[in-house]
Every structure is written in C-alpha cells, then in structure tokens.
Amino acid sequence: MSSQKNLSPQQLSANTALALSIPIGIAFYIIHPVWWIALLFTVLIFGCSYSIIHYTIKKFIYRKIKLIYKLIYQTKASKREEFYYKNFLPQKTIEEVRDDVEKWAIQRKDEIELLQQNETYRKEFLQNLSHELKTPIFAIQGYVDTLLNGALENPAVNIKFLQSTSRNIDRLVNLVDDLDEISRLESGQQQLNCQQFIIQDLLKEVYESLAINAEQKSIRCVLKKGCEQPLSVFADKEKIRQVFINLVENAIKYGKENGTIESSFYKIDGKRVLIEISDDGAGISEEHLPRIFERFYRTDLARSRKAGGSGLGLSICKHIIEAHGEAMHVRSSIDVGTTFGFTLPKNKD
Ligand SMILES: Nc1ncnc2c1ncn2[C@@H]1O[C@H](COP(=O)(O)OP(=O)(O)OP(=O)(O)O)[C@@H](O)[C@H]1O
Ligand SMILES: [Mg+2]
Q1: Which CATH class is domain 117-186?
Q2: Rounded Cα distance, 30 and 172, in Å
C-alpha cells in the first residue's frame, strides 16, 4: 500500500536535518579542519534543525488534520474539549487518522448508495403509479366522450358503456384503497386488532367467498390431509382475511384450469403456526421471485393477462404479516406451481 512508503514526521524531519547538517559540517571542516569540532558542530546543527522542523511539521499537519476532522465530523469542540484533546488525549497517529477517514468514507459511500437506491425506487414508484392511474382514467374519458357525443341516445351501447365506466371507476377506487392501505402499513399507523381465532375456519370462509372465481376455472380449493385439526392463532382476523383473499385470488388467477389449491397448517416451535397456500399453476421464474413482494411488481405473464391486477396485493400481504412481527416467504417452480407461506403467533405473548 502507498501508505507503507509514506515517511513519518520523524523520518521526514531527520532526513531534512541530515541534508542540512552534513553539508554545513563538511563546509565547517574545510574552514576549520579539526574533526571533533566539525562533528560536534554537525550534531548540534542536526539536533537544532531536527527539533525545529519536527515541531513545524507536526504543528502544520495537526492543524490540517484538525481542520479535516472538523469538516468530516462537522463538530465544533468547546474550548475545554479542545484543551483536553490537545494536552491530555494522546494525539492520533497519521495511520489512525487515515483509518478514521477511510471508515468515514465507506460510511458516506453506503449512505450515498442508499439515497441513490431510494431515488430509483421513488422514480419507479411514480412511473408505475401514473401508469396504473392512466389506464382506467383514459378508459373512463373515452367512454364518457363517446356517450356525450351521441352514444347516450343509443340504447344498444349506452348501458354497456356506463357499466364499463363504472368498472374502471371501481378499479381506480381499489387502487387508491390499496395505496392508502400500504402507506398506513408502512408508516406504522395501522393498529392491529388482534384476537384468538381458528385459522382453518377463516380460510374456509375465504374459499367460499371465492368459490365462483374458482369454479370458472374448475379449480378445487382444499385443505391438505392431516391439517384439519383446528389451530388457534392470535392475530388481526380481518387483516389475515385480506392476506388469504389475495393469496387464494392469485392462486386462482395464475393457476391452471382444473388445478388444485391446497392449504396446510402446522404448529412450529411451540409458539407459532405456519400457514402455506400452494397451487399447481404456471409458477414464477427465479428472476422474478425475489421481486414479487415489491409494490406494482408483476411478472410478464401477469402483465400480458387481462386477469392481472395492479401488483399491490403481495406487497400489502407482506406488510400485514410483518406488522404481526412475522415473516412471509415464497417457493416456486415453473410449470410445477407456487407456494406462499407465513407464520402467525399461537397465543398473545
Ligand atoms: N400463485 C401465483 N402463481 C404465479 N404467479 C404469481 C402468483 N401469485 C403472484 N404471482 C405473480 O406475482 C405478481 C404480484 O402479485 P400481486 O398479488 O402483488 O399482484 P396482482 O395479483 O397482479 O395484483 P393485485 O393483487 O394488486 O390485484 C403477480 O402479478 C404475478 O405475476
Ligand atoms: Mg394479487
């Protein structure tokens, strides 16, 4: 490393003092050829110049270092602190200072990277949001314009156009509700209303509420064999219902015709319950898997489908589970299927 080659203030002072005292000593010897007087004179010159140079360098370097310290740490020491640092604390060596500055530089680099990441995230979020808003707004604009331009009088299309307008308004309302939910969950404002309930019963209710969607694709919704024994959890029932609805809805949307959705429930480590919902649908490829919990993230398959939503569902699910202090995970293989899982506490702590 280059620092290895750097001279310490002592070495630098000694070298300069030598470069000064030797020629002066030689010159003295030429004028006064008594070797011991010349040697004594040389040593004296060396000693004096070494002290002066060393003192000056240290003063100069420490003044600069103090300035750098003040700049990087943005501190202002009080008079008493300064006196203490100067006279009682051992002064830092140049190497220690270099280590400090390196540490500071790494820390700043990390901070900058985080800020850049946040900036990219913010830009992506705004782009996605405006895209999601544009689609229904333009559709509504189109229908309303067509109606105003005469279609209102045409009984063959007027009701159809109004129904389409209403569907797009619903889509906007859902989007705004989802965004509202995410921002409340992210800001930690969302209060959980926890209670003890049987998790399988809640899932059965969700299966029933989505039975029509499942029937349309002839998908069977079942509980895994051996998981029927009722398990009680302590959680916010309505929020967990929301998680189940999105997971089962996804399993139906992205599942295959005549497929099966299977849920399993296990007691783990005596304190928690593991819940898993599996489908035998198209699966999610490895490149998409780490990102599907991000807001607005959808795989190519979901983007190209009419059935695809706005990509906020899983992000909300993850937030809800994390608000319970638990974690959510996913496993998937292309053409085999996908399993989403999460844990919930068995009892109030
Ligand atoms: N069971 C699944 N099988 C295959 N892909 C899935 C499955 N669940 C989710 N995905 C993928 O993950 C993406 C994100 O899911 P998410 O629930 O967040 O959004 P969405 O269902 O598209 O829209 P929203 O839930 O907001 O209506 C989906 O668009 C889809 O690409
Ligand atoms: Mg969804």
Answers
A1: mainly alpha
A2: 99
Burial class, 152, CB count within 10 angstroms (exposed 0-12 / middle 13-18 / buried 19+): middle
Listed by start position, the domains of the chain span 2-91, 117-186, 194-345
Tell me what pLDDT residue 298 has: 86
* Torsion angle, alpha carbons of 80, 85, 86, 88, to 10: 100
Residue 14 has pLDDT above 60, yes or no: yes
| C-alpha dist (Å) from residue 236 to 48, 250, 276, 322, 323 | 81, 21, 18, 12, 10
Between 309 and 327, the more confident residue is 327
Hey, what CATH topology would domain 194-345 get? Heat Shock Protein 90 (3.30.565)
Which residue among 250, 254, 298, 329 is best mutated to probe the pocket of ligand 1, counting the most ligand atoms within 8 A of its Cβ? 250
State the distance from the centre of ligand 1 to the C-alpha of 298, rounded, in angstroms. 6
- Taking 90 as the threshold, does the pLDDT of residue 21 lie above it? yes
Closest CA to 272 of 326, 322, 316: 326
| Percentage of the chain exceeding pLDDT 70 | 89
Dihedrals φ, ψ of 93, to 5°? -80, 165
- Is the pLDDT at 332 greater than 90, yes or no? yes
314 Cα nearest atom in ligand 1: 18
Q: Which residue ranges have their beta carbon within 6 Å of ligand 1?
A: 246, 250-251, 254, 279, 281-282, 284, 292, 297-299, 301-302, 308-315, 338
How would you classify the pairing of strands 232-236 and 260-268?
A: unpaired
Distance 138 CA to ligand 1 centre (A): 24
Q: Which structure tokens are listed for 303?
A: 């983007």
